[in-house]
């Protein structure tokens, strides 16, 4: 092992540990990778920043802008609303499979997250009307979106990344529908399985839980001990904030000190800041009686103007509030809107480790529920402008000129036709689509700037130099040599199965794109050693990285529906694991049969 290989391997292992531990956000971890590679000299400055001009990254950026135009102009919601009245009249055993197929189809051509968010709104509306039980539907449509996005080149950013790695390696880029047969088969086989598993394992929503959030959810909130509070001078264990009345003390902040251990015997003082986990009922009833102020908020002002006005919003992937602390979030809001708490679903876990994990991150992530109080029109404006989803929102038809809907639809259709027919590359097609949206007034650049998921862009830009470093230093071949000794006498179908399984397992804890960028170069090197066509192995990486079903962290749409508080971790684990095993067995036969 050379020094340069040792350096790259060390950076790779540290990065993997950071992704798993979630000590930093994924984009910050990617920047650590970029800077480490540059400082150690294993890549040149030009190679270190090459990710920002990479074809795949720019294509993903353009597709995000087009998706923003489609969503902002109501194209996706319009299509969904035309379909829902037709399928909702059907019995559930037909309705849900058709709904999953619809979501899967849209996700093949429009950003999966945007599609699923629209259908979450529609499902919530149908649930309120008593047409369906949303707890039986939301997880299936998230899974269907993931499967559908895997069917075309533009369906997910992972597909574009693997295609670009293939192009740079001299294998050639993927065609638009090159792997669609396998993707469609995966989708069609999965739909009845998901339906059966959802019917068996997903909970039914009791009627009272549909309208009462006071006891269903817990919230993490910070409160300050006021002068005269009856908590002053008492040990925490002697008060109501110690595992009583559904209130749990998580942390005490005293000046610049943060006390997290031995809280039971801690004597509370005036001006201490307490981090509590409690239900909404206790949040409203107990804070005043205990002599506590919500952190940074005038309690008297809240009680006077905003009593009982609580609005629960969910953080979506593109929100500018992602990675903020609760205090930072509160500071960005207008004077008549306040943060009352951030989600901590008491139904999910009663273990201290869960809460410690929340506070070890110190930042808001997609899927978090945030409880706001204040002016509803102002909160609605904040939600619309900052990618926040009302937890029980009803979809509305925005008043948008018809020509904007038509042009936005033409833009995405143009991208599909031009790239699918090989008239232009997908990057050139996407640039034309963005130009059409911008110059027709369908979207303004300021909307694009705020709507783009910059975390994904910086993640990709930071990870791509790692692939370059692995190739330049021979790290990919070094790892491939050891794997070759294990795989040289193994049938091709088994090799594909192993790659698919490992990638799928890794993508449950590490970003899909990061997983693909790390594994794809190694797979190409293995294929060269085994004299195999690398394409089927790259398909295994691509599908395996996309199929993140067994954890709510595995895919953004899973995180969003997990944030709704309907499901527990075990629902993803049980249904996702069974589905993953089925897809693994299917891929072991299907990919070799179709592509070897």
UniProtKB/TrEMBL annotation:
Checking InterPro entries in the record gives:
Cit_transptr-like_dom (IPR004680), DASS-Related_Transporters (IPR051679), RCK_C (IPR006037), RCK_C_sf (IPR036721)
What range(s) does the RCK C-terminal domain occupy? 208-293
The membrane spanning regions, by residue number, are 29-45, 52-70, 90-123, 135-156, 176-198, 402-420, 452-470, 482-502, 514-532, 538-565, 572-595
Keyword set includes Transport: yes
Q: How does it sit in the membrane?
A: Multi-pass membrane protein
Keywords annotated in UniProt? Membrane, Repeat, Transmembrane, Transmembrane helix, Transport
User: Does the keyword Cell membrane feature in the UniProt annotation?
Assistant: no
Name its cellular compartments.
Membrane
Q: What is this protein called?
A: SLC13 family permease
> According to the entry, what is the taxonomic lineage of the organism?
Bacteria, Pseudomonadati, Bacteroidota, Flavobacteriia, Flavobacteriales
């Amino acid at each position: 092992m050379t020094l340069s290989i040792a350096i790259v391997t060390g950076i790779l292992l540290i990065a993997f540990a950071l992704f798993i531990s979630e000590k930093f956000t994924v984009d910050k971890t990617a920047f650590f990778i970029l800077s480490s590679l540059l400082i150690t000299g294993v890549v040149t400055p030009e190679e270190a920043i090459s990710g920002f001009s990479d074809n795949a990254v720019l294509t993903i950026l353009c597709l995000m802008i087009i998706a923003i135009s489609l969503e902002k102009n109501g194209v996706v919601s319009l299509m969904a609303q035309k379909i829902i009245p037709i399928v909702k009249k059907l019995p559930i055993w037909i309705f849900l499979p058709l709904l999953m197929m619809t979501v899967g189809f849209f996700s093949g051509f429009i950003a999966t997250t945007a599609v699923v968010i629209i259908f979450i709104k529609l499902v919530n509306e149908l649930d309120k009307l008593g047409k369906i039980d949303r707890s039986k539907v939301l997880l299936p449509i998230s899974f269907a979106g993931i499967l559908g996005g895997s069917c075309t080149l533009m369906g997910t950013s992972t597909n574009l990344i693997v295609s670009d790695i293939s192009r740079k390696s001299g294998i050639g880029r993927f065609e638009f529908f090159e792997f669609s047969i396998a993707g469609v088969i995966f989708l069609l086989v999965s739909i009845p399985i998901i339906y059966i598993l959802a019917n068996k394992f997903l909970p039914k929503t009791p009627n009272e839980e549909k309208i009462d959030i006071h006891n269903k959810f817990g919230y993490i909130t910070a409160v300050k001990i006021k002068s005269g509070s009856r908590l002053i001078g008492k040990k925490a264990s002697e008060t109501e904030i110690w595992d009583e009345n559904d209130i749990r003390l998580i942390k005490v902040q005293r000046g610049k000190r943060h006390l997290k251990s031995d809280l039971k015997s801690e004597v509370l003082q005036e001006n201490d800041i307490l981090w509590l986990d409690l239900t909404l009922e206790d949040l409203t009833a107990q804070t005043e009686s205990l002599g506590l102020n919500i952190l940074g908020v005038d309690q008297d002002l809240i009680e006077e103007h905003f009593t009982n006005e609580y609005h629960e919003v969910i953080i979506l992937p593109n929100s500018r509030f992602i990675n903020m602390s609760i205090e930072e979030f509160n500071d960005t809001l207008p004077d008549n809107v306040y943060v009352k708490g951030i989600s901590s679903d008491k139904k999910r876990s009663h273990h201290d480790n869960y809460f410690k994990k929340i506070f070890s991150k110190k930042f808001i992530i997609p899927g978090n529920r945030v409880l706001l109080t204040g002016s509803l029109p102002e909160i609605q404006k904040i939600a619309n402008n900052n990618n926040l989803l009302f937890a029980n929102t009803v979809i509305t038809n925005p008043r948008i000129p018809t020509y904007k809907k038509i042009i936005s639809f033409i833009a995405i259709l143009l991208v599909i036709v031009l790239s699918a027919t090989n008239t232009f590359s997908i990057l050139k097609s996407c640039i034309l689509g963005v130009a059409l949206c911008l110059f027709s007034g369908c979207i303004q650049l300021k909307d694009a700037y705020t709507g783009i998921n910059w975390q994904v862009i910086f993640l990709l830009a930071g990870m791509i130099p790692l692939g370059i470093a692995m190739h330049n230093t021979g790290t990919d071949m070094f790892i491939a040599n050891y794997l070759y000794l294990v795989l040289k006498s193994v049938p091709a179908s088994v090799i594909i199965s192993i790659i698919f399984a490992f990638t799928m397992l890794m993508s449950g804890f590490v970003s899909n794109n990061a997983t693909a960028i790390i594994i794809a170069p190694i797979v190409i090197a293995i294929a060269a050693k085994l004299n195999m066509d690398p394409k089927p192995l790259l398909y295994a990486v691509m599908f395996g990285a996309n199929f993140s079903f067994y954890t709510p962290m595995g895919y953004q749409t899973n995180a969003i529906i997990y944030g709704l508080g309907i499901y527990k971790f075990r629902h993803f684990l049980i249904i996702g694991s069974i589905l993953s095993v089925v897809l693994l067995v299917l891929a072991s036969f299907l990919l070799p049969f179709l592509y070897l």
